[in-house]
Amino acid sequence: MSRWPHDDPASLAAFYGDPAKDEPGRQLVPVIPPFQMYYEGQPVKQIQFHRKAAGALKAALEEIWEHYGRDQAKLDALRISHYSGAYNHRLIRGSADRWSNHAYGAAIDLDAEHNGFNTGHGTMPQPVIDAFKRQGALWGGDYRGRTDPMHFEFCSREPIARPLALVGDVQADGDSDGQGDPDVDQAPQGSPPGPSPSATGFFSRARNWIVGAASGVGFGGLGALTDWQIAVALFAFIFLSVVCTVTFVICFFGAEPVRVWVRKHVA
Ligand SMILES: [Zn+2]
């Protein structure tokens, strides 16, 4: 049983507060990292984090500091000291209504530059991953579908008893996102801008469904596909289906009757 809330909007809001009412924003406390961290080259004095998860964040950073022998140069060389954002009052990119876990003050990004979207496990060192997991955090590098290796969050995806109709709400990578700071607005690397938020949501869902179905029969690699690639594949499939149907009808009935039918019903 995890000490963290399940990764769905109701459980997160019950534990951390509702971002729509700015409740998490009023429960932030400063976490002072045990080693020097930098945000875009500037020294970071403190990280604002939700009071309920601040102790766990501090413990993970302490473990990392101890693991590397309290050696700042080592942490700098591995870029663990490159902080890329934590609390951020914003929605998940591409979602019209779902808050990012950064909006709960319960997620942190490290070294975004080398651990962007869809870079597999990125360059995140295993001892860092282990330190966060020991605190019960989830790591974005583990997500099915689009990975987000810069990202650690204090929530759980252990199965909980819930009505069947709600199961589809939790997407494989529903809360992963590119970055956690309002000042930086980088698009996820490698995927062209989507058509519109709602269309992106649809393709996200389609992608998660296809990836989920495929990984169920042993094709986990499909997880690397972007929404955009899934959209192209879907359109190609629909287009080919239409062409095949039309070809079949023409072969079966002959061209002339089809032309007559089209003239009568369509033109
Ligand atoms: Zn993040």
Between the first and last Cα atoms, what is the distance in angstroms?
64 Å
Unreliable stretches, pLDDT < 50, 5 or more residues? 165-174, 178-200, 215-221
Coarse structural class = mainly alpha
The shape is: elongated
Ligand types: zinc ion
List the domain count as a whole number. 2
Number of helices: 7
Radius of gyration: 23 Å
Which H/E pattern describes the elements? HEEEEHHEHEEHHH
Task: Give the fraction of residues assigned to helices.
Answer: 25-40%
Mean pLDDT: 81
Largest sheet: 3 strands, antiparallel
How do the helices and strands line up, and which of them pair or pack?
Elements lengths: L8 H8 L11 E4 L5 E3 L2 E3 L2 E4 H17 L4 H6 L29 E3 L16 H9 L3 E2 L11 E3 L43 H20 L10 H27 L1 H11 L2
Antiparallel strand pairs: 1-4, 2-3, 5-7, 6-7
Zinc ion (ZN) binds next to strand 5.
Explain how this protein is built.
This protein has helices at residues 9-16, 51-67, 72-77, 126-134, 197-216, 227-253, 255-265; strands at 28-31, 37-39, 42-44, 47-50, 107-109, 138-139, 151-153. Helices cover 37% and strands 8% of the residues. Strand 2 (37-39) and strand 3 (42-44) form a beta hairpin. The chain folds into 2 domains: 9-190, no CATH class; 204-265, no CATH class. With 267 residues, the protein is mainly α. The strands form 3 sheets. A 3-stranded antiparallel β-sheet has the order 5-7-6, with helices on one face. Strands 1-4 form a two-stranded antiparallel ribbon. The radius of gyration is 23 Å and the shape is elongated. The protein binds zinc ion. Zinc ion binds at residues 102, 107, 109, 151, 177, 180.
